[in-house]
Design a protein that fits this description.
Layout lengths: L13 H10 L2 E6 L4 E6 L12 E3 H7 L6 H7 L7 E7 L5 E8 L6 E6 L17 H10 L7 E8 L2 H8 L1 H19 L6 E4 L2 E6 L3 H12 L3 E3 L2 E3 L3 E8 L7 H24 L9 H17 L2 E10 L5 E12 L3 E3 L5 H6 L3 H21 L8 E5 L2 H5 L3 H11 L7 E6 H6 L1 H13 L3 E7 L16 E4 L1 H6 L4 H16 L3 E4 L5 H10 L3 E2 L10 H14 L2
Parallel strand pairs: 14-16, 16-17, 17-18, 18-19, 19-20, 20-21
Antiparallel strand pairs: 1-2, 1-6, 2-3, 4-5, 5-6, 7-9, 7-12, 8-9, 10-11, 13-14, 13-21, 14-15
Amino acid sequence: MSDESSAAPRTGSVGVIKALADSGVVLFHYRANTGRLSLKGDLEGYGLTRLKRGAALRAVAKLLRPQDLGLIELLTQSAGPVETFNRQAMTTEGVAGMWRGRRLADGRSFAGVITAPEVEDGATDHLTGLLNRPAFIAAVDATVAGPEGRTLVVGDLARARRLNEALGYDVADRVLRILAERLTEAFGGGALPARIADNTFVCVLNDTEVVAAERFRSALEQPIEIGDLTVHPAIVVATVVQSSASSLNAHDLLGRAEALLGQLKSAQRILQSHGASEPVHDSLTRLGLEDDLRTALRRGELEPFFQPIIRLDDGALAGFEALARWRHPRRGLLPPDDFLPLAAETGLMGQLGLVMARTAARQISAWRRQGLGGDSLFVSVNLTTSDLQRTTLVEEVREIITSEKLPANALKLEITEGEVMRDPDQAADLLKELKAVGATLSLDDFGMGFSSLSWLARLPISGLKIDRYFTRTMAANEGSAKIVRSVISLAQDFDLEVVAEGVETAAMAETLKDAGCHYGQGFGYAPPMSSEEALVYIIEHELDRR
């Protein structure tokens, strides 16, 4: 198949099409300029009879299982390392085919053949040697759950598309084979390890859901060395329990687990989309940056920058907010937009948050011991979704406050109202525990859509933060001005302190002070600064006030 003409027979060639149908083969030709896929041959044998001769890819996508849509992504990539590929795809009706394709001379189109899937003995996956999907289902149905039941664990390799684009499908296949070996080594054949889709593995464990998921993830999420690059597999895991009395068969159990897996992956994408805007990097750069980020957390390259928070009534320095920056050894100082989305995507946000809290607390403690900034100097640190989900968070905060000998109100933890409203009951309980160990709590970005003011009275918070948007637009937008005044009035009713972000001018500060706002923060006072620059700011600020 060296050129385009060798891949597609002439239309109307009934004899050729009949020969293809008789041989159980389908020829395909994807034309990038039209975005359509031509198929000729035994369409019925591969569950493709509903497609027209020149089908749009969205029609093809509707026929495929969600976990096999990587085939569509592969065909539509405009350029990349893939010149040839072998990929198995199954329709929603359970008919599988092996797609073998080659990039054509225009660099954007593909042509190839669909044949029956390759299996060594009819029961194994051709790439990894694990059980394939039908064999796994048959094996589960042939065994019986014990008295305590068993847990079916399905795991999907996250960011597989980026891995394919960055390193090529041959290397990506090598990663999949390594993951399969790890699964077998960790659990043995009795767990029925299987590869049931391109990037999806499954096994059956006699553990609770929580333990099974953790064992599965721990077995696979170990670094893989590929040349000079270290790949850190991230696995999205879903579990379904089969009790000893369950009437569900393996097919239904697997369907439930895959449906849950799809929901988890969608939720993960939504959470990531609510983070900072993501800069454009090629896939190889992002993989390298991910490896660098993990190394940076170990080496201490991530550090807090400090932005002053000023008392509006007298202009005194009250404290700082700690904001993450990365001193990359080759790229220089990176702003948060360049790495926070990646940290969230790779599950490193919780570790990063802990580093920021610990380092910022250590610095504020040092300044206080030196008598700098006054007895009430504090530092505010943001809590993320990942922080709130860590079961060790309360104990970590206790340890930080104790080890740095911080008094009450010296460490403030900020949580957005959106995070609270994800699960208000759980958030209220967690915040009470954090307050009990000595942390002060405030709601960040207040005014951006709090769902129920009744919750405000139930949360153990001491302050609110007005989002910078309302501060910056309050002079020209009466709606913003009303929100600012309402938040300040509400805070007064609940005896809460208010910090206004985005203060850029003296006029803004004066307006906020007259409205009863306690603190201001923004570039009008100073940008986020390194600890060395912040020390100079503290000294100069104290000298200016004498």
